[in-house]
Every structure is written in structure tokens, then in C-alpha cells.
TrEMBL record:
InterPro entries: Histidine_triad_CS, Histidine_triad_HIT, HIT-like, HIT-like_sf
Molecular function (Gene Ontology), one example: catalytic activity
PANTHER family per UniProt: HISTIDINE TRIAD HIT PROTEIN
Motif (Histidine triad motif): 97-101
Gene source species: Marinobacterium nitratireducens
Domain called HIT: residue spans: 4-113
Name of this chain's protein: Histidine triad nucleotide-binding protein
Amino acid sequence: MDCLFCKILDKEIPAEVIYEDDQAIAFRDINPQAPFHALVIPRRHIHSLNELQPDDRETVGHLVMVASKLAEEHGFAEQGYRTLFNCNSHGGQTVYHIHLHVLGGKPMGWPPYTDVLKTPV
């Protein structure tokens, strides 16, 4: 398998890891869209959200709990933050290993994609 995030997990590719446990790791995004932008990924490879099985409920819930912990630890939980999963090409997924984006440290626009596109769709 040629998965970028699996290579990060295997330490074949360096990443700025900011959280790690037996189920997940979190690392800073190399192309941040906010002052704080991290990716939370499960240690087990899951290609996309469409591949989730009932047994993955705990895994996905754990990713969300890690996001909440990161927001608290990095001081923006109270002001608010954004979490986001992308799914497949039309959803903006570029690495096919599920990952939860955690963005904080600035007010976020609505709809979410205006931050990137600069014009509403």
C-alpha cells in the first residue's frame, strides 16, 4: 500500500506529531489553513468514510475526542474551532486514509469552503 499517512505512522516520512496514543496520532498539517491546523488519523488504515463499518464507531469517536483535547490543550476550545472530514474527490479528500482536520486560532467563515476558495459557491 502506498499511503502517505501509513508511511507517517511507520516513521518512514517525518511529521510534527503533537498527539499519540494506541488508537490515533495527530500531527500538524503541512499546508495549514488556520493558525492551528492538525490532522487526527487512526492507526488502522481506513480508505475513506465510505469504508467505515459498525465496529469503527469507537475509532471515529476517538478521533473526535482527540480533536477536542487538542483544542483545549492549544487554548482555542472556548472560542471555538472547526473539525472536518473530507470524503473522496468531490469532498476534497487527497490522502485516502481517513483523517479529521482540526482548525482553530481564528474566526472561521461560513460556509466552510469560503476560507479556501475566497468566494461563496
